[in-house]
Amino acid sequence: MDLAPRVSTLAWGRIEVDGLGVFKDAKLWPGGGREWDWNETGTRHRPGIQPADVAELLAHGAEVIVLGRGMEGALGVCPETVEDLQSAGVRVEVAHTRRAVEMYNALRTGTPVAGLFHSTC
Predict the structure, then answer these.
(1) What span, in angstroms and rounded, lies between the C-alpha atoms of 31 and 38?
(2) Which residue of 62, 87, 106, 117 lies most exposed, with the fewest beta carbons within 10 A?
(3) Cα separation of 22 and 3, whole Å?
(4) What is the pLDDT of residue 2?
(5) Confidence at residue 85, expressed as pLDDT on a 0 to 100 scale
């Protein structure tokens, strides 16, 4: 099993990931990750994280997906996103980003976990 990369540092506007570099927002999965560019799917704070935002995480075999709603929780999550993931048999955890990163890092060595993290608001 490929391990998901560890988030080593989280600060306002900055997510540092071992082996991948520094991002503002990040998509991470077992064996890799990249910058999360909201413009790819037209994501905005409302309605928030869409099914299209998590499709790539599913494609990498995640069994748990952790969604970070921002440092202050300003990013929403579309109900369809959670419903689609649960229908696919994926456990979903949603939290402010600091807590979401803690959960993700704790899960990464024993579970195929992916994360979607917003580092501001």
Answers:
(1) 22
(2) 87
(3) 18
(4) 87
(5) 96
